[in-house]
Amino acid sequence: MEKLNYATLEKSGYKGYILRSAPEKVLQFGEGNFLRAFVNYWFDVSNERAGWNGKCVLVQPIAPGLADLINEQEGLYTLYLRGSENGERVDSRRVISSVSRCLNPYVKADFEEMLKVAVSEDLEYVVSNTTEAGIVYDPACKLTDEPASSFPGKLTQVLYARFKAGKSGLVILSCELIDNNGKELLKCVNQYIDQWELGEEFRAYVNNDCTFCSTLVDRIVPGRIRDAAEVRRLDEENGYTDPLADVGEVFGVWNIEGPQWLEEKLPFKRAGVNCPVVPDVTPYKKRKVRILNGAHTGFVLGAYLAGFDIVRDCMNNDTVRDFMNKMLYDEVIPTLPLDRADLESFAAAVQDRFNNPFVNHELMSISLNSTSKWRARNMPSFLDYIALKSTLPKCLTASFAAYVAFYSNDIQELTDAGLVCRRPKGNTYTVSDDRWVLEFYYDHRADSPEELVHAVMTDTRMWGQDLTEVPGFEAAVLETLKLIRAQGALAAYEAAVR
User: Fold this and answer.
1) Contact assessment for residue 223 and residue 172, using Cβ atoms and an 8 Å cutoff
2) Which CATH architecture has domain 283-497?
3) Residue 386 · residue 393 · CB < 8 Å
4) Hey, is 97 helix, strand or coil?
5) Would you say residue 348 has pLDDT above 80?
6) Alpha helices of 334-434 — where are they, by DSSP H?
7) DSSP annotation of 178
8) pTM to 2 decimal places
């Protein structure tokens, strides 16, 4: 069977949207699964729905990469979006044609080609996802490197070539998973301007003519289908092989922080896709952390003790699902600074995402480092709710008790791998966290419930404050911990929902 390309696709009888040629408007640093299931998807839909008529040139951020394979397939690849939407199973297939080619700048010819794209009249955007470690200033980089080893160094080379050619400024959309990603990237570029002595005119061009946008990305991308039998079946159905096939969940949102004019410039609003331009992404990050991530941390530890192993099964249990929803709708959403309808829509999508029939998301994988996770994801909602309502939030309180129970349930031993505990149904499990946290719980393994709860809540290294100072919290956690140990975590969740 032939590999996917334009000729093979035509022979296969594919009936979906395809754009064979268009101006190269995007220079994209990163060619991995996430960007291809996210950014390149949004631009592909914009070509179809909004007549954007653009292509993306991909650049390998590091020497080993996918350039050869992408170019063999003429930029084409199959994207499967799978999951649950409004309670219904979704399994869609789309061949993405928004990518023109991929460059490996560590090859001299491709480095020179990258600079040719940089000075093109067609170029409008730079997009990046070079991992959390990608936005870093490396003083070892030089302007004469071909290319600079760091991504900000490469970007400075691109912008300097464009500046010298007298071309207009670009919009830079940073997708790396760090706070203020666009601002941090601009900071690095300014450091190279200083180090390489590129002059004040170029600095003004970068800081005034170019627009660096912080963005917030949200789509789970498993990346590829691992079951060989399913791959063979899909190849037969499609009429081609595709080693670049990509898989993402149905839900996706790209919040882009930028000026109001950017919303009209970008094609996303006209295409009707979920990529809003907002004045500040901070509230949307708070929404994601407190609702999506906070939901995970809030229910999974107790659910695991109750006998569940994967997230989807939790969503099919009335008690766990009702507990999560009460926590989100009654205790978390009232503390957030966005429109209530927007927040409720996001929370409703969370239940669909957790109920994805294609993803077996293990509770134990979510449980990693739950101490810092509860502090970052749940404690702000807990404290804000108390400030707002002057009473304890029942579900968030129960989730803290479940955290204590998970870390202390019938402790067996402390090993190099972590703290080994025993589950109520008999099997052992290993708690993974910072070593000092695991040693704390191991040292307190013989404590009474009263002693343990007091020790946990007064440990300011864990929580940044003494939680016994929150009125009624210690007594409520102690009562719930005893209930979990006596009757199980589901009983504690049921009590919180009542």
Assistant:
1) no
2) Orthogonal Bundle (1.10)
3) yes
4) coil
5) yes
6) 340-354, 363-366, 370-373, 379-389, 394-408
7) S
8) 0.90
State the pLDDT at residue 462.
97
283: part of which helix (H) or strand (E)?
helix 282-287
Query: d(Cα 156, Cα 164) in Å, to the nearest integer?
Result: 12
Q: Which of 104-118, 126-140, 266-280 has the lowest mean pLDDT?
A: 126-140
Q: Which of 212, 213, 110, 109 is nearest to 159 (CA)?
A: 212
N residues, the chain: 498
pLDDT in tens, 171-208: 999 999 899 999 999 999 999 999 999 999 999 999 99
Q: Which CATH class is domain 6-279?
A: alpha beta
Residues 112-123 pLDDT 10s: 999 999 999 999
Q: What are phi and psi of 397, to 5 degrees?
A: -65, -45
Q: Can you give the pLDDT at residue 224?
A: 83
Yes or no: say if 127 and 39 are a contact pair by the CB < 8 Å rule: yes
Give the mean pLDDT of the chain. 97
In the chain, the amino acid numbered 366 is I
What tokens appear for 381 in the block? 């909602």
Which sequence spans correspond to the domains of the chain? 6-279, 283-497
Taking the C-alpha atoms of residue 268 and residue 311, their distance in angstroms, rounded to an integer, is: 32
Spatial distance between the Cα atoms of 67 and 477, rounded to a whole number of angstroms: 54
245: left (phi over 0), alpha (psi -120 to 50) or beta: beta
